[in-house]
């Protein structure tokens, strides 16, 4: 096999690092490092240095070690195996395995978190911070996108703040079916969930705001983000229209990521974040801040 063919073969199997070692060895064998071909004793120490500069070709060296804690399957305190522990049987003839199986969730919850559209930042009060003309157009596009997904939505819950309420009402006009119930919730209002890490200089709420808003937003998470009730027979699709800080905190909590990392994510106005919660308690993030259905000139993040 020619030198060129050998070089190509090694490149295909091992990549550039292996080619570097092979080329160095070939050059060394031809005396390009300044020795004669017979000076093997002085040649190999230099080749050893080249080999030491390359990573060890073992899987352990290329696989990051796991960090953090193991997945907590009872993160929502609804794991049936935990709930059944210590539970007194109704009768001696009752089959405990059947009882436990009947108490297991069987449906998957799909929660689509929508960030409100662009709004009037110069408003002095919440009532004045209504959607801009572009914001209303964004809400229309989001509603059209949700309708195009062809899903059967069960409920539309929204923050009680003006910009989220208006966004939700525009979206609701596009949803298929006889009509999806709209539910307003104060827990979903915008706020400061937890002090972000790393900190930012342009936004520094008082400690009391984290203390008050954090408890409220955590209460919203516990109310809306959990596995299905055992009585739920079919998969559900629920829409929650709220705010960027709330959504980002929800995502970190649901995925069991450090919640203080919520500000490391960015969300466009009218974007869709999709969480799936399996009966087992597993959580998947299907989309984060999806706004690809909007034309580029309609994208904002205010």
Automatic annotation (TrEMBL):
<dbReference type="GO" id="GO:0090141">
    <property type="term" value="P:positive regulation of mitochondrial fission"/>
</dbReference>
<dbReference type="InterPro" id="IPR013078">
    <property type="entry name" value="His_Pase_superF_clade-1"/>
</dbReference>
<keyword id="KW-0496">Mitochondrion</keyword>
<dbReference type="GO" id="GO:0005741">
    <property type="term" value="C:mitochondrial outer membrane"/>
</dbReference>
<dbReference type="Pfam" id="PF00300">
    <property type="entry name" value="His_Phos_1"/>
</dbReference>
<keyword id="KW-0472">Membrane</keyword>
<dbReference type="InterPro" id="IPR051021">
    <property type="entry name" value="Mito_Ser/Thr_phosphatase"/>
</dbReference>
<dbReference type="GO" id="GO:0004722">
    <property type="term" value="F:protein serine/threonine phosphatase activity"/>
</dbReference>
<protein>
    <recommendedName>
        <fullName>Serine/threonine-protein phosphatase PGAM5, mitochondrial</fullName>
        <ecNumber>3.1.3.16</ecNumber>
    </recommendedName>
</protein>
<keyword id="KW-1000">Mitochondrion outer membrane</keyword>
<dbReference type="GO" id="GO:0012501">
    <property type="term" value="P:programmed cell death"/>
</dbReference>
<comment type="similarity">
    <text>Belongs to the phosphoglycerate mutase family. BPG-dependent PGAM subfamily.</text>
</comment>
<keyword id="KW-0378">Hydrolase</keyword>
<feature type="region of interest" description="Disordered">
    <location>
        <begin position="82"/>
        <end position="107"/>
    </location>
</feature>
<dbReference type="InterPro" id="IPR029033">
    <property type="entry name" value="His_PPase_superfam"/>
</dbReference>
<keyword id="KW-1210">Necrosis</keyword>
